[in-house]
What we know:
The chain is mainly α. The chain has a single domain, classed as Lysozyme (Orthogonal Bundle). It has 8 helices and no strands. It has helices at residues 3-34, 39-52, 79-89, 95-106, 111-114, 116-128, 132-144, 153-167. α7 crosses α8. The longest helix has 32 residues, at 3-34.
Amino acid sequence: xxxxxxxxxxxxxxxxxxxxxxxxxxxxxxxxxxxxxxxxxxxxxxxxxxxxxxxxxxxxxxxxxxxxxxxxxxxxxxxxxxxxxxxxxxxxxxxxxxxxxxxxxxxxxxxxxxxxxxxxxxxxxxxxxxxxxxxxxxxxxxxxxxxxxxxxxxxxxxxxxxxxxxxxxxx
Length: 171
């Protein structure tokens, strides 16, 4: 590899890292817009989005190996309701609408699809916990509901801790 080729490769890698960083920050801002009270909710969601999208943070991410999952949260059983939600609200599919759907499923007019008990449990932990792992675990159990054997709980917990370290000031 020539020095010029090396410099170009390094630049592409750096650009990819910068693009991913900007995506994470933008999604973090969107999450904070809808969930402003507790920064640990934001970091737990970022950790789960990291795992759900395989680190792409792309709101158009399709499930690997052709499964039904789609988006930041890999909507699968949520997908039909999410599509109806977009039509009812008259909004386009994007990062904001996906996060807004999650918010409305927990606090708003979409709770019946999620289940009123699940929404209530999520609201309670969002209001009381400063533990990103506890919040992440509750998101998995009550909202994401991945297939058995596909939970990747350790990866979700580690990513949630990592984003907390990066985004929440030390006390």
